[in-house]
Write a structure and sequence with these properties.
TIM Barrel, oxidoreductase activity, acting on the CH-OH group of donors, NAD or NADP as acceptor, NAD(P)_OxRdtase_dom_sf, 8-stranded parallel β-sheet, 274 residues, alpha/beta, AKR5G, NADP_OxRdtase_dom
């Protein structure tokens, strides 16, 4: 991973940037367009949004106003829980394209596992085969959810986006994904701010002369995990992509791995009620 343009190659040959810009909780308002344009200006070429975030229109507007050709930007969105099922998913996808003002997506994900996973996945397979989306995948899927999809799918998911950080690295899920050539992607890489309170991360920040955020994000990348930090602060947006002039030693990588407590920051996919 030499720079922000470095990419992983998904199991269908599509190139996905290792580093992306997350838009969760970036509100749908005019000023928010500038946060996304700033990210694009400093070099991000991977934007992650979702129908439920309510900000697909500003993501699309930022892409248009950036002047960067659409085919140089990797855009991900997700189908929400109340749109599961074959026909509903196809309609949800069309609505997402309209809001983003684009005619295709680079990656479309099932946002959370629900009872209609297989029917929803069939819809994603159709969208992929029809050329409407370059890659398809899932989000927040545990091993048993992935096994359910793999039982009779035509197309193996290309990506599984999950909560992933030093406290909760999801080793079992990661190993399963590697075995099945499914790229793991991290949301919440900074533990919703809790990463800054961990003594080891402070220690490594001083050792490497990098911020705690940079240590955590570089750890993700060296673990072979795509990561999508989010910020609305211009300095932090720049800081979060300054990850390519240092490397964490194997010894320190293992120290960070030892922070695993198995405790989630977010919801457990097996018990969600939304």
């Amino acid at each position: 991973m030499l720079d922000i343009n470095s990419f992983t190659v998904l199991n269908n040959g599509v190139k996905m940037p290792w580093l992306g810009f997350g838009t969760y909780k970036i509100e749908y308002e005019e000023s928010s367009v500038d946060y996304i344009k700033t990210a694009l200006k400093v070099g991000y070429r991977h934007l992650d949004t979702a129908a439920v975030y309510g900000n697909e229109p500003i993501v699309g507007k930022a892409v248009k106003e950036s002047g960067i050709p659409r085919n140089e930007i990797f855009i991900t969105s997700k189908v929400w829980n109340n749109k599961h099922g074959y026909d509903k998913t196809l309609k949800a996808f069309e609505d997402t394209l309209k809001r983003l003002d684009t005619d295709y997506l680079d990656l479309y994900l099932i946002h959370w596992p629900k009872t209609l996973n297989k029917e929803t996945w069939k819809a994603l397979e159709k969208l992929y085969k029809d050329g409407r989306v370059r890659a398809i995948g899932v989000s927040n899927f545990k091993v048993h959810h992935l096994e359910e999809i793999l039982e009779d799918c035509e197309i193996v998911p290309m990506v599984n986006q999950v909560e992933y950080h030093p406290q909760f690295p999801q080793t079992e899920v990661h190993e399963f994904c590697k075995k099945n050539k499914i790229q793991l992607e991290s949301w919440g890489p900074l533990m919703q701010g809790k990463i800054f309170d961990i003594p080891l991360m402070k220690e490594l920040s001083l050792k490497y002369g990098k911020t705690i955020s940079q240590i955590a994000l570089r750890w993700d990348l060296q673990m072979g995990v795509v990561t999508i930090p989010k910020s609305i602060n211009e300095n932090r947006i720049k800081e979060n992509c300054d990850l390519y002039d240092f490397e964490i030693s194997k010894e320190d990588m293992k120290k960070i791995e030892s922070l695993n407590t198995g405790v989630r920051i977010g919801h457990d996919p097996d018990t969600i009620t939304f």
